[in-house]
Every structure is written in structure tokens, then in C-alpha cells.
């Protein structure tokens, strides 16, 4: 499975000759892809190598059998990865994950490697794997008992806590700086949070239209200044980043807090998450759901389906 698309390869166990004979027998037209004979593709090299072997059918059968065994092995590995996910990882309501170091470093190497890889891809919101050299170095640091300086990897910030556990958080600089609102009350933000937003009618939550932008360009200097002032009142969701940290969030790791969503109007923070509001008309941004565990489980399922 790639994304939401399920890929099915029902003919992998059949040779080209068998498929051609079947097509002829059932009077089906045979279409030859010209790229199949183009030597610039690696698959052409492998295909020619197999065809030039003394017994290509035997080689194909063995390759197919090997692929089946590898798929079974992967299923077994991912089963243990899924079990380790519950015992090694703590998914927090703040959109980061704690690796329980004592448990993680005692995992079998392949299980630990895959668990860490899937975690990095989930929090970093990446569909591709990081470079092997960087990933291998990061994994060694995380599994070691030695202390290390915080570092980034593949859209993640990795920190070691005083109790020896590992925090894997979203790299703040990788988060989209501003997500403008169009009147939504629910929003999927940074692929980590499902947010619920409430705001009063005095705030403009719409982006300027194309005509407004054109008018801005064609108007006089005085009008441009006026339009910019109106634009500054648009409400958006941004990471807290360098804005002041409120009292109710100061007990959380500072870097983690900087990656939390806040409601902003211009350069002013209107609302923080996890904050109780008792004043009518004051905007609210609430974290309804943290999606990290669900997305990581989906990654595991996708690997099983490939």
C-alpha cells in the first residue's frame, strides 16, 4: 500500500512465457512496453540476466520463494515492532513521544531499528526514510547510555531527559509557520493534532481574495497601508515558537512547548492550547486528538501490505 492506494501484484509468481501463453490461449492481445528492452533501466539488466541463465525458470521460482520468505519474515518483525511500540513508547497529549530507554536499548537490534525509524517518519511527517548514515548514527546515540547533545533528524528534535529517557519531538522549524483559517472550527494541524477552534466574530478569519490583492497593488500608497493593516487582523494557527510561554505550559519541556499550536492574530497570541477560558468572546484552541500513535500504526500496516 502506498498512501491510500493498495497495490496488488497477482502475477509475480508467473514467468513471462506463461503469461504470454495464457494470453494466446485466451485470444487476448499482447502489449509490449518499449521500456522493457531499454538498457538504461536496472530492471532490464536483471531481466536479461535471468533470461540468459541456463535454467531461468528455476531461478525465477527461487526468487519468488525467497520473496515470499522475506515477506513472512517482515510480518514477524513488524509483529514484534508493534508489541514494542506499547512497551517502549509513551505517546503524550502534547504531540511528542518518550522512548523508555531501559526497555528500548534491550530490544533486539532489528526491532529497535525499525521502531525508531517508524517513529522518526511519523513525527517528522515524512514518507521517505532518512539517509542511512545519519539514521544509524542517531540510533546508536539513542540506544547508548552516554549523554548526548540534542540533535535534529528528518524533521524531528531528539533530546535526552534527566532520567535517561529520550524525547522525540517535532522540529519547530519544519512546521508550517502559518495556517490561515477560513472559518473552520476543526482543523488537522501538522499531521499531529486535531484541533477545535472557537473565535469571536470580531476577528477576520478569511484570506484576501484575488481581487483584493490586485486592488492592493493598484491602489495608492495610503490605500496599501490601510489594506495591510486589515490583512494583519487575519487569524491563523502557528507554532508557539519564540512567543512567551504561559504559566500553565511551563512545566513541559521548553522545546516541546514551542511546537504546540497557538491561535495568532497579527503578532499577538490570542489563545494557547490546554488553557481554560471563562471569558465570553475570548478565542479558544483545543487539542481534541493527538494522531501520532494512529499514524504510526498505519505505517506498520502499510509495510505489511506492500
Q: Major sheet: order of its strands?
A: 1-2-5-4-3
State the helicity in percent bands: 40-55%
Beta-strand portion reads 15-25%
The number of distinct β-strands equals: 12
Separation of the first and last Cα atoms: 5 Å
What is the N-to-C succession of helices and strands?
Answer: HHHEEHHHEEEEEEHHEHEEEH
Number of helices: 10
- SS-based class: alpha+beta
Mean of the pLDDT scores?
85
Q: Uncertain runs with pLDDT below 50, 5 residues or more? A: 207-232
Q: How many domain modules?
A: 3
Round the Cα radius of gyration to an integer and report it: 27 Å
Largest sheet: 5 strands, antiparallel
Shape: elongated
Q: Quaternary arrangement of the chains shown?
A: single chain
Protein name: PP-loop family protein
GO molecular function, one term: ligase activity, forming carbon-nitrogen bonds
Domain tRNA(Ile)-lysidine/2-thiocytidine synthase N-terminal: 3-48
Pfam families: ATP_bind_3
Amino acid at each position: 500500500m502506498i498512501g491510500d492506494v493498495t497495490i496488488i501484484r497477482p502475477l509475480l509468481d508467473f514467468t513471462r512465457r506463461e503469461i504470454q501463453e495464457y494470453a494466446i490461449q485466451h485470444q487476448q492481445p499482447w502489449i509490449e512496453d518499449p521500456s522493457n528492452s531499454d538498457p538504461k533501466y536496472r530492471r532490464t539488466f536483471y531481466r536479461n540476466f535471468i533470461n540468459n541463465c541456463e535454467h531461468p525458470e528455476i531461478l525465477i521460482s527461487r526468487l519468488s520463494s525467497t520473496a515470499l520468505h522475506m515477506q513472512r519474515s517482515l510480518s514477524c518483525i513488524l509483529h514484534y515492532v508493534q508489541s514494542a511500540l506499547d512497551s517502549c513508547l509513551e505517546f503524550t497529549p502534547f504531540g511528542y513521544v518518550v522512548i523508555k530507554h531501559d526497555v528500548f536499548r534491550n530490544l533486539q537490534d532489528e526491532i529497535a531499528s525499525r521502531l525508531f525509524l517508524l517513529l522518526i517518519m511519523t513525527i517528522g511527517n515524512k514518507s521517505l526514510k532518512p539517509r542511512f548514515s545519519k539514521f544509524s548514527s542517531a540510533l546508536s546515540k539513542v540506544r547508548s547510555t552516554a549523554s548526548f547533545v540534542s540533535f535534529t533528524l528528518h524533521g524531528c528534535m531528539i533530546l535526552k531527559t534527566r532520567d535517561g529517557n529520550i524525547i522525540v519531538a517535532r522540529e519547530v522549524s519544519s512546521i508550517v509557520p502559518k495556517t490561515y483559517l477560513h472559518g473552520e472550527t476543526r482543523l488537522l494541524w501538522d499531521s499531529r493534532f486535531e484541533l477545535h477552534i472557537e473565535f469571536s466574530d470580531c476577528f477576520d478569519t478569511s484570506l484576501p481574495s484575488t481581487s483584493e490583492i490586485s486592488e492592493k497593488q493598484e491602489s495608492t500608497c495610503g490605500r496599501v497601508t490601510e489594506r495591510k493593516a486589515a490583512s494583519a487582523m487575519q487569524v491563523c494557527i502557528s507554532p508557539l515558537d519564540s512567543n512567551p510561554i504561559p504559566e500553565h505550559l511551563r512545566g513541559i519541556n521548553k522545546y516541546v512547548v514551542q511546537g504546540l499550536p497557538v491561535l495568532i492574530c497579527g503578532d499577538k497570541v490570542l489563545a494557547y492550547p490546554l488553557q481554560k477560558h471563562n471569558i465570553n468572546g475570548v478565542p479558544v484552541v483545543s487539542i481534541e486528538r493527538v494522531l501520532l500513535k494512529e499514524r504510526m500504526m498505519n505505517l506498520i500496516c502499510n509495510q505489511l501490505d506492500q
